[in-house]
Design goal:
The complex is a heterodimer of chains A (about 325) and B (about 550).
Chain A (H helix, E strand, L loop, with lengths): L1 H23 L13 H34 L19 H29 L10 E8 L2 E5 L5 E3 L1 E5 L4 E7 L4 E4 L7 E3 L5 E5 L5 E7 L12 E6 L1 H10 L3 H17 L15 H4 L1 H10 L19 H13 L1 H4 L11
Parallel strand pairs in A: 1-5, 4-10
Antiparallel strand pairs in A: 1-2, 2-3, 5-8, 6-7, 6-9, 9-10
Chain B lengths: L17 H4 L4 H29 L10 H35 L8 H20 L28 H29 L12 H32 L12 H35 L6 H14 L15 H29 L8 H24 L1 H7 L3 H31 L5 H27 L13 H34 L37 H13 L1
Classes of the chains: A alpha+beta (about 325), B mainly alpha (about 550).
């Protein structure tokens, strides 16, 4: 009986999906992941409240719809031309169902506004806090710390200390999103956006770019590693060693398009390429990119804004790697 | 034989092809609009299925990288500019003159010009795929600087801009035509409180288009100049990337209501006829249409909660976005009240209208969630938004469009569609749609961002994607059922009279299909349901 199915299908689907989500993995997408910061907690709290409110309205409307479908379907003995009662409206009823949603929505708006200070961690501005500059590139993240340290794709933070990220885009718009920590913030060329939070749990938190930024938008991951204060300092220091910084830079800025061994992917193979092993030529290419029609490949100016030590570190890493600094043996076509 | 106005035309215009190429008849132009936009719907739908095949499992290599970004861009752009807006223009073209008892649109030649510009714009837009270095790749929103010359070399983005321009000009001309027609050509006695609610919706659609389309036209012009003439309107040191977003969404958000309001108008026509009752609260439904149209112009920056706007602006746009929910919920309650104590006749138009009610409600509620902007910090640019937007535009608008297609099929073709196939179409589409888009809410909360060509996660994350892809393919199957039904019924369906549904409005007074001049005369209109009045008068005379 299709009429009865009308009633049961949407309800069954919702229940099945919600059930499946809850059963498999926590939270399985039923709510935002985390939270591991007070801001994330405030967002989750708001989410559950507005979800609950919407669920009540959803159940009311869909139940009414299903009841009416079942109750008021034309009976077999009623001719098709028979009319229902000619009710043209009811002003009092209509005023009621205009005013009640208006009141509920106004209350929701006011409650939302009360949560803003917590969500935006507004108190952090006045406290002593760590400020990290986040420069988003096609297709990696460059983090700059107050004492001049640089890391690529991995952001190291001390636990329980407020942090303020100053985000900007070095080429196109990106969006920094680590769902388990807090909401996202866009990194826009020409602007500096601030995102504040206090990480309360140690561990690695996976993040990504949320704004379509080009061909490798899907592969622009970042990791936030939250450590105890001592560990944070020692790890950050060890990441500044030439080969460590060079390796991170290669993996973040180069390998996303050219492959981990420079074997080529979206970009052409570059292992052993003359430009790669010539520090000055490499420096120029990384700053200007490649955007001339006679080459098939477009390359973003990935080295915009790098300190000299990062260029040097990259060249040192390339030199240290046998795979990258020597051309791969010529392969014979059709082998194998 | 009745005198045919086309008999006066030169003979070369009488051929079966040339008569369509040269037609200025609003009904033929309406059919051209509807059929053309359904062809584009098919193309954009195939693109959607290509994407879902690519996303059906982790690390897939079916469509990769650049190709995926081209398809993601064209799917969105084509669905909005080449399907939803023009198919509604097609319904408006066909129906508005008939509904208000006019013989044609106010400017028939302008009307033909709108259609041909739209077709040209569609072809130019799709030709973007053939451009050097590929089609436009920055999404239907084409945010700068991604869409600038530096980061999108080649001519794909330029063709996208030209396509937007041509379809935009077509829509503006068409909208001016609708406004003039509705204001000046109504039958005697048809006051503003007696015009059909679909016509009300087309009035709101047209006014909104005239008000907001020039903004996107201006933005696209600036982008074209930046790309081709070396200007720097959107460079960070001048207007900046955010200027594009403001201009785009000042158009883009009203555009959502441009796409939804006429579908709501269709629902307001279908529900009363198939419940055998008048619409509950005509004035409330009509005024809520205007209320939604007005409020829709004050909410655009809720698409931009994560660009770093001052908090007071975010609060303002959150409040206005929540306020839109008030007239929207008025409509939902009034539709439910229309069903109350009716005699519901379960034919395809009603099934799709009820589908609209059930699914649009979900899209509206997730819209409220997204307006609560701290939650939007998590959901923005994630699959939660993708799911929300498809519940509004597919669960809402497209279900409404199908309600309209089946409802007016006998009027347009003079033949009845196959009811059995139509119901099969409904059920496959309904199940497929929910399978495709319900899991996407959960994916978004799990952290799946929009517009990615693949993902590496397995487990439940991959399973949700599998379900979603199966749903998308089911939707494709449903469309084949629809296509078969439409083609076969148009050729061989049972012939019907002027008014197979016992409907309320004047288009059912004309023959099916209507004569070229629509009506020889129109009865004096004394209420919002002139045809029912006429039926009652005839019954009185007989008894």
């Amino acid at each position: 009986m299709p009429r009865k199915l009308t009633a049961s299908v949407p309800v069954a689907l919702v229940l099945a999906l919600a059930g499946a989500g809850a059963a498999f993995a926590a939270p399985g997408g039923v709510g935002p992941p985390g939270p591991n910061t007070p801001s994330g907690e405030a967002i989750s709290r708001l989410y559950w409240i507005v979800l609950g409110l919407c669920a009540v309205v959803f159940v009311l409307v869909e139940t009414a719809l299903i009841l009416f479908i079942v109750r008021f379907r034309r009976r077999r003995d009623t001719p098709e031309s028979a009319e229902g009662p000619q009710i043209h409206g009811n002003t009092r009823l209509e005023i009621i169902w205009t005013v009640i949603p208006a009141i509920i929505l106004a209350a929701l708006a006011i409650f939302t506004f009360t949560q803003i200070p917590a969500v935006q961690a507004q108190g952090v501005e006045d406290e002593a806090h760590l400020t990290v500059r986040v420069e988003a590139h096609q297709f990696y993240w460059e983090y700059r710390y107050p004492s001049g340290e640089t890391t690529v794709d991995t952001l190291y933070l001390p636990v329980d200390e407020p942090v303020e990220l100053e985000l900007t885009g070095m080429d196109v718009i990106h969006s920094w999103w680590v769902p388990a920590l807090t909401g996202k913030m866009d990194a826009i060329p020409g602007r500096i956006n601030s995102l504040r939070f206090v990480p309360e749990t140690t561990g690695d938190f996976e993040g990504k770019c949320a704004e379509l930024c080009g061909v490798q938008h899907a592969f622009m991951p970042t990791t936030v590693t939250v450590l105890d204060r001592d560990e944070f300092e020692s790890t950050l220091a060890s990441q500044q060693e030439v080969l460590a910084l060079g390796k991170a830079t290669w993996e973040g800025a180069c390998a996303t398009c050219h492959g981990l061994d420079g074997q080529g992917d979206v970009g052409p193979p570059i292992a052993g390429n003359g430009t790669l092993t010539n520090p000055e030529a490499l420096h120029d290419l990384l700053l200007t990119g490649q955007n001339t029609p006679q080459f098939d490949y477009y390359m973003p100016p990935v080295g915009r804004g790098w300190p000299q030590k990062q260029f040097d570190a990259l060249s040192a890493y390339i030199k240290s790697s046998k795979t990258l600094s020597t051309a791969p043996p010529a392969t014979t076509g059709g082998g194998g | 034989m009745a005198t045919r106005s086309e008999a006066m035309a030169p003979t070369w215009k009488e051929g079966s092809v040339t008569s369509w190429l040269t037609t200025v008849d609003h009904k033929r132009i309406g059919i051209l609009y509807i059929v053309t936009s359904f062809v584009f719907f098919g193309a954009a739908g195939v693109m959607a299925m290509l994407m879902r095949i690519q996303l059906s499992h982790a690390n897939a290599g079916f469509l990769t990288k650049g190709a995926y970004n081209e398809v993601v861009t064209m799917h969105g752009t084509a669905m909005v500019f080449l399907f939803v807006v023009p198919v509604l223009a097609g319904f408006g073209n066909y129906l508005v003159p008939l509904m208000i008892g006019a013989r044609d649109m106010a400017f028939p030649r302008l009307n033909a010009a709108s259609y041909w510009l739209f077709l040209l714009g569609g072809l130019v837009l799709l030709s973007s795929f053939l451009a050097d270095q590929g089609g436009a790749q920055c999404g239907w929103t084409s945010y700068t600087p991604c869409s600038s010359e530096e980061f999108s070399p080649g001519h794909g983005q330029d063709l996208w801009i030209l396509g937007i321009h041509l379809t935009g000009v077509a829509s503006i001309l068409g909208s001016i035509n609708f406004i003039v027609t509705i204001h000046n050509m109504r039958a005697p006695g048809m006051t503003w409180m007696r015009i059909p609610l679909f016509t009300w919706a087309i009035e709101a659609y047209s006014v909104l288009l005239v008000l907001v389309l020039p903004t996107i036209a201006a933005a696209a012009t600036l982008l074209l100049l930046d790309r081709q003439a070396g200007t720097t309107f959107f460079a960070p040191e001048n207007g900046g990337p955010i200027l594009w977003q403001h201009m785009f969404w000042f158009f883009g958000h009203p555009e959502v209501y441009i796409m939804v309001l006429p579908a709501m108008g269709i629902i307001s026509e279908v529900l009363p006829v198939f419940s055998r009752k008048p619409i509950f609260g005509y004035k409330a439904v009509a005024f809520s249409t205007i209320g939604i149209a007005f409020a829709s112009m004050l909410v655009w920056a809720h698409h931009m909660f994560t660009v770093g706007m001052p908090t007071y602006l975010q609060a303002f746009f959150a409040a206005t976005s929540l306020a839109v929910a008030v007239p929207t919920s008025v409509k939902i309650f009034n539709w439910l009240a229309t069903l109350w104590r009716g005699h519901l006749i379960f034919r395809a138009p009603l099934m799709f209208a009820l589908g609209f009610l059930g699914l649009f409600t979900i899209g509206g509620l997730t819209g409220i969630m997204l307006a609560v902007f701290p939650f939007d910090y998590q959901a923005q640019d994630s699959y939660f938004v993708v799911a929300h937007m498809h519940y509004v535009l597919f669960g809402g608008t497209v279900f409404g469009v199908f309600a309209g297609v089946y409802y007016w099929f006998p009027k347009i073709t003079g033949r009845m569609y196959n009811e059995r196939l139509a119901q099969i179409h409904f059920w496959i589409l309904f199940v497929g749609f929910n399978l495709a888009f319900l899991p996407q809410h959960l994916l978004g909360l799990m952290g799946m961002q929009r517009r990615i060509y693949t993902y590496t996660q397995g487990g439940i994350f991959e399973w949700y994607n599998v379900i979603s892809s199966i749903g998308a393919l089911l939707m494709g199957v449903a469309m084949l059922v629809f296509l078969w039904n439409a083609v076969a019924s148009w050729r061989r369906g049972r012939r019907v009279g002027p008014d197979p549904w016992g409907a309320d409005t004047l288009e059912w007074y004309a023959s099916s299909p209507p004569a070229p001049n629509n009506f020889d005369s129109v009865p004096y209109v004394t209420s919002a349901r002139p045809l029912r009045d006429l039926r009652l008068r005839l019954q009185e005379r007989e008894t």
